[in-house]
Amino acid sequence: MTFSSSATRAEPASVDDLLLGWNGSEDLWVFAYGSLIWRPNFNWMERRLATVRGYHRSLCLWSHDHRGSPDLPGLVFGLDRGGCCRGVAYRIAASEVVPTFRMLWAREMLRGAYVPRWLSCETDENAVRGLVFLLNRRCEDYARGLSEDRLLDSVRRAVGQSGPCLDYVVQTEQALRASGIDDGRLGALVRRLAQAAG
């Protein structure tokens, strides 16, 4: 099985393109760093803590629907360049790969905010090749260079179809801690949000 991780290759236009090189019989892995940790909405066979290097978790994407509105957009997580990210790798059974990946494509790829890549995910057992949705820095929803005050204000005030942006951020931080993942930056942000609410 061979999956290219090169940033210069053509972007996959469909799930079929994404799965080129898959033999149809091997289980595949998916890396979660945000809401997929606490709301995967797919069946998985195994769950491991994993690290992806070269990218970090960041509230760097405007949400005009699920966690915000056109008038008051919220923010959601993306994997932006630099650093590393501790998250969760899910092993998907071969028989579930196609429906699961179609669901993930519909969930993550409709607005062009993410770029799917096959990357090495380091786990305590061994490194696995996993599907990772990276931030697309060329998308119009990229929230580049926000001040912390504006970020905090957006998270506190925005509400969308899936609920308040604040709930999304807090749930993600809680899910990380429950999994044994310490994201110091996100923890500090949640503490500042709590102080403002109190």
UniProtKB/TrEMBL annotation:
* GO cellular component terms attached to this protein's record: cytoplasm
Query: Keywords of this protein's UniProt record, alphabetized?
Result: Lyase
Biological process (GO), any one: glutathione catabolic process
Signal sequence bounds:
none
InterPro entries reported for this sequence: ChaC, GGCT-like, GGCT-like_sf
| Domain of life per record | Bacteria
Tell me the Pfam families matching this sequence. ChaC (PF04752)
Entry GO MF terms = glutathione specific gamma-glutamylcyclotransferase activity
Coiled-coil zones: none
Identify which top EC class this enzyme belongs to: lyase
Reported EC number(s) for this entry are 4.3.2.7
Q: Which PANTHER family match?
A: CATION TRANSPORT PROTEIN CHAC-RELATED (PTHR12192), GLUTATHIONE-SPECIFIC GAMMA-GLUTAMYLCYCLOTRANSFERASE 2 (PTHR12192:SF2)
UniProt-recorded name of the protein: glutathione-specific gamma-glutamylcyclotransferase
Give the species this sequence originates from. Answer: Bordetella pseudohinzii
